[in-house]
């Protein structure tokens, strides 16, 4: 695992030096002088560069979700964010997309919280409905219509993160349903474990100027509203985790959100336009000063989302 981390950051370093040297001319990673190592990348209290025990050093940010025990200094975070975005933009023509889970991509409920008219679902066999045991009892996970197509297409234009207020075990269960082979998210799943209070792009290893957030809740993003696209909350079950709706749920009516005119279909259309708008400039150098936030001007709710 350590080797993978080193290879990753070595790649980042080499890429920077060779391909975008002119952009980072005054910056260099900590390894430039072993005698004065700045301990940029620390794992389990050991600097990955100089191997020194740095338990007493101020290493500010934990990136446990990428590699267990990995912590980065402020300088390493800034450096990695910048280089990751430059690599994504110049090499793969991709931006970054941060996706919420609950009520954005899925709706889940404990079986014990199903209404009487929804109990039939316990026997239902459908690809969009998954039963999972949880520490609170059996759970049903209902994926939002069009979610598979959405992820497949969005993955061509964006490097994607999941960012949820749910706990780590729950998030892993849900992500396994959406992305069983880790094709879309890899280990880029940020949960309450890393982010117990508000959501923040500080934990996303990419430059904010290249990140789009999709969430049904605005309040959880106090500092990054310009990056934010809001989608209509997806409620499939009566017990929606926020309040019990008075009108019959989709499940009770045996209906669902439209696949062809629903939120995710419209969101994908908007994201494609956004991506196209970002990369539409003629000169490659212009990309270095582009900011996706100028195109979103959020918080913004795209048409039909
Ligand atoms: Zn060091």
Draw up the topology in text.
Elements: H1 2-19, E1 41-43, E2 46-47, E3 61-62, E4 70-72, H2 74-91, E5 95-99, E6 106-110, E7 129-134, E8 137-143, H3 147-154, E9 158-163, H4 168-178, E10 189-190, E11 211-215, E12 228-230, H5 250-253, H6 263-278, H7 292-296
Parallel strand pairs: 5-9, 5-11, 9-10, 11-12
Antiparallel strand pairs: 1-2, 1-4, 3-4, 6-8, 7-8
Helix pairs in contact: 1-2, 3-6
Bound molecules: zinc ion.
Protein name: RNA polymerase II C-terminal domain phosphatase-like
GO molecular function, one term: RNA polymerase II CTD heptapeptide repeat phosphatase activity
Enzyme class: hydrolase
Distance between the termini: 40 Å
Low-confidence stretches: 1-7, 13-33
Compressed to H and E, one letter per element, the order equals: HEEEEHEEEEHEHEEEHHH
Q: State the strand order across the main sheet.
A: 10-9-5-11-12
Q: Structural class, judged by helices and strands?
A: alpha/beta
- The count of β-strands is 12
What count of domains describes the coordinates? Answer: 2
Shape: globular
Bound compounds, each kind once, are: zinc ion
The proportion of strand residues reads: 15-25%
Most strands sheet? 5 strands, parallel
Question: Averaged pLDDT, please?
Answer: 87
């Amino acid at each position: 695992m350590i080797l993978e981390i080193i290879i990753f950051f070595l790649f980042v370093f080499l890429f920077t030096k060779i391909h975008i040297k002119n952009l980072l001319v005054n910056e260099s990673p900590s390894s430039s002088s072993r005698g004065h190592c700045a301990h940029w990348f620390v794992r389990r209290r050991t600097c990955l560069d100089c191997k020194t025990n740095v338990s007493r050093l101020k290493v500010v940010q934990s990136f446990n979700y990428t590699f267990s025990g990995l912590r980065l200094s402020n300088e390493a975070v800034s450096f990695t964010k910048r280089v990751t975005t430059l690599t994504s933009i110049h090499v793969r023509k991709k931006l970054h997309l941060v996706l919420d889970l609950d009520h954005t991509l899925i709706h889940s409920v404990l079986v014990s919280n199903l209404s009487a008219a929804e109990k039939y679902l316990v026997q239902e066999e459908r690809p969009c409905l998954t039963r999972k045991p949880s520490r609170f009892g059996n759970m049903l996970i209902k994926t939002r219509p069009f979610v598979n197509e959405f992820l497949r297409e969005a993955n061509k234009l964006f490097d994607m993160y999941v960012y949820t207020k749910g706990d780590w075990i729950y998030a892993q269960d849900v992500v396994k349903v959406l992305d069983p082979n880790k094709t879309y998210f890899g280990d880029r799943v940020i949960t309450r474990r890393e982010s117990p209070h508000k959501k923040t792009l500080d934990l996303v290893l990419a430059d904010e100027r290249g990140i789009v957030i999709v969430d049904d809740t605005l309040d959880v993003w106090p500092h990054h509203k310009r990056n934010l696209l809001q989608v209509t909350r997806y409620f499939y079950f009566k017990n929606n985790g926020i309040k019990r709706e008075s009108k019959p749920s989709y499940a009770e009516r045996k209906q669902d959100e439209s696949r062809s005119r629903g939120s995710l279909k419209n969101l994908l259309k908007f994201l494609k336009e956004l991506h196209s708008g970002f990369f539409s400039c003629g000169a490659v150098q212009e990309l270095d000063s582009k900011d996706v936030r100028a195109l979103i001007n959020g918080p913004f709710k795209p048409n039909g989302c």
